Structure formats: structure tokens, C-alpha cells
Amino acid sequence: MFRVLYYSLKIDTYYAINSFFYYLRKLPILKKIIDGDSYKANILKYIGAIVGIILSLGNMFLNKFIYFLIIYLLANFINKSTFTFFHIYFFFSIIGMFIHNQFLSTGIKKYLSIMIFKMDTKKYLKYNLFWIFLTNFIFNLICFIIFKMPLSYSLMLVVYQLGLRMIGEGFNIWYFRKYNNFWYNNTILYFSILGILLLFAISPYFGIMIDKDIIFIGLIISIIGGIIGYIYFDHFDDYKPIMKILYASNNKMNESNNRLEIVAVKDRDIEINNRLIENKSGYDYFNTIFFERHKNILLRSSRNYSIILFIIYSVSIYFLLTNKQFFDLISYTLEYKMGIFVFIMYFINRGSIVTQAMFYNCDHAMLKYNFYREPKVIVGLFKKRLITIIKVNMISSLVIGIGNVILLLLVGNMNILNMLSTFLFIIILSVFFSIHYLVMYYLIQPYDNNMRIKKISYSVISLITYFLSYEMFFIEISSVTFSIIGLLFCILYIFISIKLIENFAPRTFKLN
User: Fold this and answer.
1) Are the CB atoms for 455 and 445 separated by under 8 Å?
2) Which residues have a Cβ under 8 Å from the Cβ of 129 and sit 6 or more positions away?
3) Cα 285 from Cα 280, distance rounded (Å)
4) Mind giving me the DSSP string for 201-258?
5) In Å, what is the CA distance from 380 to each residue of 80, 282, 362, 370, 375?
6) Which pLDDT tens digit goes with each residue over 154-172?
7) What is the pTM of this model?
8) 148 in helix, strand or coil?
9) Which residues sit opposite 447 in a β-bridge?
């Protein structure tokens, strides 16, 4: 096993090195400096390996920390009890048992190890299991210590989670062998179980909490179940054929086909109502045809988010009407913590999906023609598309804006200026993110024909956008002031964006 562990880590290390050099060469300054001769230098290989390993472990720890932070914030919101934290973690671990299965997952490193370098599949999966359990044990324990939780219960819950993970792996293998499919593809069963478990997780809000003895009982059950799951895994030897089936059906090693499926046009969407285009011409005609053919793609996720947001606001209104203690919290949030909605709007904005649909179903073919990259064509289509994306994002934005106004009315805040600024701020945010993703698309054009992102600059800007949105979460400022600043910034951003599109897009908007 340790020999397999050694070679697996070696493959991961060289993959990290190659990835490190690949992305370095994408940077304009280093593109000509780093060549094949530079790669031969051992010192650069060592640096690449160290950076790759640090980034890999850092990413694992960051994801784990965010997971704990969500539980911590949720527990504090409910009743600021340490045991509430344990209660939520207890049920979140059960959810993780179903959604974090590793054995039958596909990925580039697993593909290289099993399919290319012909490593023993079962031994590799054992290494993978050992490595996941080791890192999970360490990072979970560190996070429990960071959040100052009692060590005894922390150790019990860490082992409890690992046992559940092993049960989930065994169950996933059994289900796949029996039905030749993953259990989570049964959406009715999957979402029903998740919904029930989430309700159990937040039950302390309703005064229902598990007993401390339940944690100990859960620990015993998870250990016994985990051992049974491991024995089941160990007695099954046909993993290599299963992995071949999975990779053949995926035709991947990446997520590109998932993205292609998201943005692909269905046959039923091709027909267009002629009345919608009979009085249009030029860019308006072209954009109208595109929007009508892709209406379901563009509106699907926005509608889904709108439904979810409507349910959330409906539940919030109900709790506000039945629990007066939330009045001050809601009022303060909507008056001085509007930065929270920057972070929310970042996640629900559909600009990224829309640009993927534009590229895959239109631009990757049209960019082969020189006239399509002329400044007049680019700017004309940019303006039409901007209006389209704003309309798409406005669906969910209006739910939030109207929902906030209703909440202000319910808490007795009748200040017209506050209500107006709160509503306009959400609309401004929606417009900003619509512009932002479209500008990045035209100035960087990050996709290749398989919808993979090939430009590191796009990933860097996306990451910066995420962190800036996250920082807004902690800003306390009047909603009126925030709205005025947002409006001025949005107007300036539109003006600068159009100038950048006019001057640079003819060179940057191209095929990769």
C-alpha cells in the first residue's frame, strides 16, 4: 500500500509541477521567459512541486474551514450554543455521507493513475481512501480547535464523520452494482433525503435538539457501519472495469461535458416565433434569434433561483410575523448591512452561464470570420447582449428587492428613502454583475471548444471578484450611501467597459 501511496503522490506532484508551469506560461510577462529549457532546471521543478502541494493542501483546508464557518454562523444565528454547533455538524456529516463519495468519482489524477499508468485500481482506491481520511481527520480536528470546541466531543465527531464516509462509499458501490447507476441520479430520493436531513440540522431553531448520548450512539454505529462498508469494498475486485465504464461514459477527465450539457440547445428550442423578429434587423435581429433559441438555457437557472428566493422570503416573513425578536435584526441588516447582498448577488448572477451559452452555441463558430471581430460588430452585439443578460438577472433580483421592501414594511421602517435605496441597490448590483461577466468574456474570452477555461487571467479576476464580494459581507454603511456609491460606480464601470471593448476586444475576442 505504501508503495502505491508513494507513486500516487509522485504522480500528483508531477501533475502539480506541470500545472504550475502551464499556468505560469499563460501570464504575458512570463510567457517568453519560461520555455522547455527552463523546465529542465531542477530548482524550478522543486519550486513547482512545493507550490503545487501547498496550494492543494491549502485549498483542502480552506474548503474545510469554510464548511466549519457556515456551521458556526448558523449555530450562532440559532442560539449561540456550543452543542448547537455539534448538533448541526452531526446531521451535516450524515448529508456528507451521501454527497461526498470518492470511490466511483472520476478525475484527471485518478485517470492518469489507473488508466494511463496502469496502477492497481483497488490499491489506488485504498491509498485514496487513506489519504482522504488522514487529511480529513487532521483538518477537521484543527478546525474544531480553531472554533474552540471541547476536545472530547470534537474527537468523537471527527471519527463519527469518517465512519459515515465509509458507510456512504460502501452504499454507493452497492447501489451502482445493483442498478448500474449512481443513487443521487434518483433526484426524488436524493432531494427528499437532503431536505429531511437539513430540517433535522436546523431543528434547534424550533427547540428540538439531539441528546448528548445520541452523539456517542452515532459514533458506535458509524464505526461498526464503517467497518462493514470497508469489508464490502475490500471483498469486491472488479473496480477496473467499472472505472473504464465510468470514463468511457464520461468521455472526459474534466467537467467540460457537464458544461456543454448545461448550455446545449434542445431540438424543441430551435423553432422561433416569426412575429418576434419580423421588424428587427442588424444586431437586434441576430441577438433576438439567439435569445429566443436559448431562452430556456438563459432563464432556467434564474427561474430556479427566483423560486428558492421566494420560498426563503416567504419563510422569513412568516417567522417575522410570529417572532418579534427578529425585528431589530432585520431592520439593522437592511439599513446598514447591505453589503451582505453583494455576496448573495455574486452567487445568483447568471452571467457566467450566459456567456458560456453565447460561446458554445454562437461565437465559437462566428469568430472564424473576420467581420465578426470588427469593432462596430463587437460593440453593437455587446450592447444588445448586455441588455439581454440584465433582463435574465433581473428576475431573481426583483424577488430580492421586493422581498427586502416587504421586510422593511413589516418591521415598521416606513422611511421611503430607505425602501427606495434598498430596492435600487439590488437592481444596481444585478446590472453591475451582468456587465462584469460580459466584459470579462469579451476582453479575455477564456473558453476553448470544450468549454474549458484556458486563460488564467479569467480565473484570477473571478477569484478577486469573489474575495471583494466576500469582504462586502462585513461592511457596515447606510443603505442610502451604499446605493449612491453603487450607482455612481456602476455608471462609471459601464462607460469604462464600453471604451475597453471598443479598443481591445477586436484583439482579445478570439478563439483559443
Assistant:
1) yes
2) 102, 103, 166, 169
3) 5
4) HTGGGGT----HHHHHHHHHHHHHHHHHHHHHHHT---HHHHHHHHHHHHT-SSSHHH
5) 54, 9, 16, 15, 8
6) 899 999 999 998 998 888 8
7) 0.56
8) coil
9) 453
